[in-house]
Structure formats: C-alpha cells, structure tokens
Specification:
Blueprint lengths: L7 E2 L1 H7 L5 E5 L2 E5 L5 E5 L1 H6 L6 E2 L2 H4 L14 H11 L6 E5 L5 H12 L5 E4 L2 H7 L25 E2 L1 H7 L6 E4 L3 H5 L10 E2 L2 E3 L16 H11 L7 E4 L5 H11 L5 E4 L2 H5 L7 E2 L2
Parallel strand pairs: 1-7, 2-5, 2-6, 6-7, 8-13, 9-11, 9-12, 12-13
Antiparallel strand pairs: 3-4, 10-14
C-alpha cells in the first residue's frame, strides 16, 4: 500500500507516486464568487477542474457531497452513512490512500482531510502548496476525467474531532481549553464585519489560518514558523484546543497545522461563527 509520510505531502512525493493503483487524488477546488449585495458566496470549482487538474485527480464537490443535507446550518459535517456513500462515489475506500488539494490556501483541502479524520480515516494527506505550487513547478496537468474505482469505505466516527455550540459555550468560561479564531485580525477585533455580529467568540485568541501559508510558493511554513505562529497567538500546546472560523473551513487548516506539530488534542467547532453569531445570547467580544 502507498504510505503517506505525514498529513502533508510534497509535490515531489506526489509526482513520484502518480499512478499508484491504491492512491486516490481529490481535487477539492471551491471558488469564491461575488454576490449582488456586495458580499460573497462559494461555488464548486468544477469548471476549473475541467480546464486542467493533476493527472488522475477526481473532482470532489465539497459543498454538495461533504455537507449534511439534513442540517439547515451551512456545510455541517455529514453523518457516517453519508460520508460512506460520498467517499465510495469518489473511489475512496479502506484499501486506498488519499491526497487532497485545492487552488487556494489549502482550507478546502484541509476541510476534506478533517472530514476523513473525523470518520476514522487516517490514510489521507494534503498536497503542500496545492495547485499553485504544482503548476509553478511545471508538473503534469490533465483534462481527462478518470474512471472511478469501486471502493468500500468503513466510517469510524471520532466524535472528539468536532464540537458543538454547547461545548464552545463551556470553553468560554475558564482556561481549560483554548478557543482559536482562525480568521483575520480585523475580523477578530470586529474592525471588519462579515458575520451578522462583529468580533470573536468570548475568550478566544487569534491565529489566522492565512498566516500558515508562505505566499512565495503557497506551501505551509516550516514547523518552527508554525510553532511561532501559535505561540505568538497565545496557544498553549499543553491544553486542548478548539478551532473555529466563519463556517468551519479555515479552522481545519489550523487543525492540520497543529497536527503537523504533533498536537492531537484539537477539535473544530463545526457551526463556527455562522451558528454562533445567529444567537444574540452567545457571548462575543470586540476590540
């Protein structure tokens, strides 16, 4: 079986393993589109995939296949049966290894990686640098749509990977857990308002997920830089952490970075600010 060295694999590693019969590559591209009211929405990146993708990659529609259709909240983690069906449709099964990538700053790929991890599938990794680094290095690109191999995916739900609003509310009191706001400093302070209520969940620290990425090549920064990023934010690796953002996507990139540092006691608040700010009684801070 193809062995993934870490939850993050290099473009060199992927180039050396292209075509491995047990390797599934998922293109998780999701694009941001402007809306009539001046805000933005997300859409599947199927058109970008059709124009070119890593050879053998299967398109993963994160917004459709990896969201709980029975939950009115946006992009909530699917239940075990739904994740099983989604993964088997993509050719992901118990005997496969998976590499995921996107065309942005890894947050959508990290969301898929975390979804797999939440359901007990640990043979997955994010492509470091994603599409940006792959194409900058003149790696091979294809427009062919690969055949999906039959697969049997056995979910093993890990409930500690995802927390609910009630768990976060408990964490706002005291210092038993670190609440990590994964969006920009301007959104953290409330200077920039994207959600219905400005600011952050009470008792949070700010570790922007965008700051994990080296803008020169689109790859994650080295471990020393990642550790410094979290230490500067006030994240202690001696106590459990909960990451959150606007909708539970960028938070997964912080969860990946913490995992790379050997920290396993981390969870993602799935509802994030989309759910939290809808409740006028949920405590928030600004400034």
């Amino acid at each position: 079986m193809t062995t993934l060295p870490t939850p993050l694999v290099s473009s060199d590693w992927l180039a050396d393993n292209l075509g491995a019969p047990d390797l599934v590559i998922l293109d998780c591209t999701t694009v941001q589109e402007a809306t009539a009211d001046g805000s933005y929405a997300f859409a599947p990146g199927k058109e970008a995939y059709a124009k070119g993708h890593i050879p053998g990659a299967v398109f993963c529609n994160v917004l459709e296949t990896l969201a709980d259709k029975d939950d009115p909240r946006p992009l909530m983690m699917p239940k075990s049966q739904a994740i099983k069906e989604a993964m088997e449709t993509l050719g992901v099964g118990d005997g496969t290894s998976v590499v995921v990538y996107d065309r942005g700053n890894h947050t959508w790929a990290a969301r898929v990686w975390w979804s797999l991890k939440t359901h007990g599938f640990d043979k997955a990794a994010v492509l470091d640098g994603g599409w940006m680094k792959w194409t900058a290095e003149d790696r091979p690109v294809s427009t062919d749509t690969p055949a999906i191999r039959p697969a049997c995916f056995t979910p093993n739900h890990q409930p500690q990977r995802i927390v609910a609003k009630e768990d976060v509310l408990t964490a706002t009191s005291g210092n038993a857990k670190t609440l990590i706001h994964s969006l920009s400093p301007e959104e953290f302070t409330g200077e920039k308002q994207v959600m219905p209520r400005p600011g952050r969940i009470a008792n949070s620290v700010n570790a922007p997920a965008n700051a994990l990425i080296d803008p020169a090549n689109g790859a994650y920064k080295n471990k020393d830089a990642l550790l410094a990023h979290f230490q500067k934010a006030g994240v202690s690796l001696d106590r459990p952490a909960i990451t959150y953002c606007g909708g539970g996507v960028a938070a997964c990139s912080n969860a990946l970075a913490l995992t790379l540092l050997g920290f396993d006691d981390v969870a993602v608040y799935d509802g994030s600010l989309a759910e939290w700010t809808a409740d006028p009684d949920a405590p928030m801070e600004t400034g």
